[in-house]
Write a structure and sequence with these properties.
By secondary structure, the chain is mainly β. Helix content is 6%, strand content 33%. It contains four helices and 34 strands. The relative contact order is 0.08.
């Protein structure tokens, strides 16, 4: 996925599948750090420019002592952009594109600095300063609302024509006022409740300048109007039952830095059919309706209207409430590899549900001891 990042002190990210920003807020170009001369601050409070498409800085060279700054709207239409002309003398020299996949955005210009995010190949960034440190040249950039640093050697400069060719459409983050949060010991935030009514929600990576890191237990419980949720790459933890009983939820887009997920966070999401998982998240998979963590724990089953569920070979544990409320299911095929089944794994399922198990397997013993219908396959 290609992303264009425009520097701003408000949360702004321009991406190939959308524009993330806060509609109606001014776009403010921040002053760079280090020894470079600060850029003049320019504001654009007219939200109508946002609806026209991407905003770029033209002309600008942040590495000189006398930069000039202008905000210019570019239409989202590719044909309209192609007909535009620019003074190319210095404008594009500060746009860089990542040439390696999943590059680290770091909190400082050092290999030992904290990793803030993983950025995919072809991400396009606008640098606001440049410095040498820790044996590398570093660009100071902004990615999905997070200020940080990226090494020069994993980027290439791009020109006006490539920038103009990007396929851009505008979208925005959900307003921060729709989320209730609590601050954690490390200064990051946990979302504890969603109080909005939007059908499509894009959680911002930062709220009031603090990074959103955890989606709390039952944070979205009972949000029955919610149909699609996108979690920012800043999120590392999704706690148990975070989206419990979101009966209209159809699609979930997981973040690249996700490292922990609680007991079936999507329990009761009877219409959930699509879970988008970034390529770098190799520890979690979604196949044939089965959401599987670490290659062996079945977290949940999401395939609305399905009659038969086939649990993939290699799964060893059927987690808490994994099949909760799957009333359409008539049969579930469990592999020989299963060695653990939570007592309430099949709660609120049809009384006609039949487990297909191997003879003398753990699954057969469990079904017999828990009075479940089963057949030897």
């Amino acid at each position: 996925m290609v992303a264009v990042i425009i520097l701003a002190t408000v949360t702004v990210a321009w991406v190939a599948y959308g524009l993330m920003g806060s509609e109606g807020l001014p776009f403010v170009i921040p002053q760079p750090t280090s020894s470079f001369t600060p850029m003049p601050v320019t504001e654009l409070s007219n939200a109508s420019a946002v609806s026209q498409g991407i905003l770029v800085i033209d002309p600008i060279d942040v590495l000189t002592s006398t930069p000039t700054l202008t905000l210019t709207p570019i239409p989202t239409s590719a044909s309209a952009r192609a007909s535009m002309s620019f003074d190319q003398s210095e404008t594009m020299s500060v746009y860089v594109k990542l040439i390696k996949n999943y590059v680290n955005l770091r909190s400082g210009p050092s290999m030992s600095a904290k990793r803030l995010a993983l950025m995919p190949v072809d991400t396009v960034l606008l640098a606001k300063s440049k410095q040498f440190n820790d044996n590398y040249i570093w660009y100071e950039v902004n990615y999905n609302g997070q200020n940080g640093y990226v090494r020069e050697d994993v980027t290439i400069e791009i020109g006006l024509e490539e920038l103009k060719s990007l396929n851009l459409i505008p979208v925005t983050y959900t307003d921060a006022s729709a989320f209730e949060t609590k601050e954690l010991d490390d200064g990051t935030l946990c979302i504890v409740a969603y109080i909005g009514t939007d059908t499509i929600v894009r959680i911002p990576p930062q709220i009031n300048g603090k990074t959103v890191r955890i989606i709390g237990r039952c944070a979205f419980e009972g949000c029955r109007s919610l149909e699609e949720i996108t979690l920012p790459d800043s999120v590392t933890d999704i706690e148990e039952y975070s989206f419990f009983d979101c009966t209209s939820l159809k699609q979930v887009n997981l973040p690249r830095q996700l490292s922990a997920i609680g007991s079936n966070p999507f329990e009761g999401c009877e219409n959930l059919s699509t879970i988008t998982i970034p390529e770098n998240l190799e520890w979690i998979t979604f196949k044939n309706g089965c959401l599987i963590a670490s290659g062996y724990v079945l977290i949940g089953y999401f395939k609305p209207g399905s009659i038969t569920a086939i649990v993939p070979d290699g799964v060893t544990a059927i987690g808490d409430h994994a099949f909760f409320g799957c009333v359409s299911l008539k049969e579930i095929v469990l592999p020989d590899s299963v060695t653990s089944i939570e007592h309430d794994a099949f709660d609120a399922c049809s009384s006609d549900l039949v487990l297909h198990v191997a003879q003398d397997s753990y699954a057969e013993q469990w079904a017999r001891e828990n009075d479940m219908n089963y057949e030897i396959r």
